[in-house]
Each structure stands twice: as structure tokens, then as C-alpha cells.
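ok so I'm stuck.
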Amino acid sequence: MNRPVVTPKSRTVLYLLLGVVAAAAAVLSFSALRDLALVCGFAPQLAWLLPVVVDAGAAAGSLVWLGGHAAEAARMFARALALSLLTLSVAANALGHGLAAFALAPAWWVVVIVSAVAPAVLGAVVHLAVLVGRPEPATAAETVDDEPVPYQLTASAYEHGLLDEHGRSRLWEAAPPKQDRAMDLIEAGIGRRRLARELEITEHEARRLIARTRNHHDTGEPVTGSLNGIGGLS
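replied:
not stuck anymore, here's the structure
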């Protein structure tokens, strides 16, 4: 079944319409939030900052949430921040129009909530910036695999004749394990120590298998191809 293709012309029209809607919505929301700030006691010279805080905070959260380049903790917090501020913007717009339409004064608790928006958003955005700058913690398997293979293990393997002149395990030649078994274990994220035990090979060879399998995503080489040539695995 053929899927419909979006032409460049239709995509351009879509983006233009999206820009028109976004600009109109931003102006209307800006006006409503500014008017709400005015009736809540903000100075006329500063009332326009309330919609800026809300919209800029929602935009920052959306960029991190949908960008896909930050750690998972940062993306989850950004998602909560963006959705919370969008919900707040909708509620504040409705409240502002309701107060204006019926010529009502805001309740004291409304004034308190509106006054607390700016510092709350500031704290949330600073927290988001800290999360974005924090590196994502490595998994247990990655931590184990990043450890260098001790020299004693490699030297002992050579001494007992377990490795050939190319550093490959001679155990592969005696009883080479199946590719699908090795691939299943590596794709499950196990470390080199457990892989060595499962396949009855040295940790030196297990680490080489893990490295080659993970590199296939960068080179475009199939997983089975990435295992070929290591210790006679075929």
C-alpha cells in the first residue's frame, strides 16, 4: 500500500499556516496574561513580563522535551514543565477574560498565585538547565565494559595458550559458539565478565565481541557481519 507523499509546496503552505496561527495565538495570549497581571496589581510597566515568563518557560521545556538530545531525567522534567505552563496559560487566559467580561475583581488567592508564577518558573528553568548539563549516568553493563581488562588476565591467557598471536581465543576454534547466542547475550546488555562465562571464552575476547557489536550501528555493518572474523566466529 502506497503512503501519501507530502510535497515541498504543501509542506511550505503548512509551515506558513502554522506561523500565522502561532503568531495570532501568541498575541492574544500575551494580551490576556498582561491584562490579568494588571488586575492583580502588577505595575503597568512590568505587566508585560508575566506572559513573557510563561511563554518562554513553556518554550524552553518544549525544546528540551522534544529535542531528544538531553538525558532522560532532563527530558521528563522538561515535559512536566512545558505541559504545566501550557495548562497555566490556558487557565490564566480563561480567568482573565472571565474577570474582564463580568467586571469582577480577582480573589486574594488568585493574586497570590499570579504573583508566584515568575519566581516558580525561574526556579524550574534553572533546575532544567542543571539537568541538561548533567551527563546521563551509565548503566551497570556499560560501567563494567568500560573497565580495562587487567594485564594479568591477558598475560595469563597467553601463558596458558588460550590466545593465539592475534589475541584471539583458541577456544573458538575448538567449539565456536553460534552467532545468534552471542548476539542475544550482547543485545541484552550483559557485561564482558558474564559474556565470557556464558560463551566460555576469555574476558579479552568477550570485550572485543561487545565492542564490535556496538560499533555496527555507526558503520552500518550488520550485526552478524560485525562478529565475523573475531576468534573464528562464523
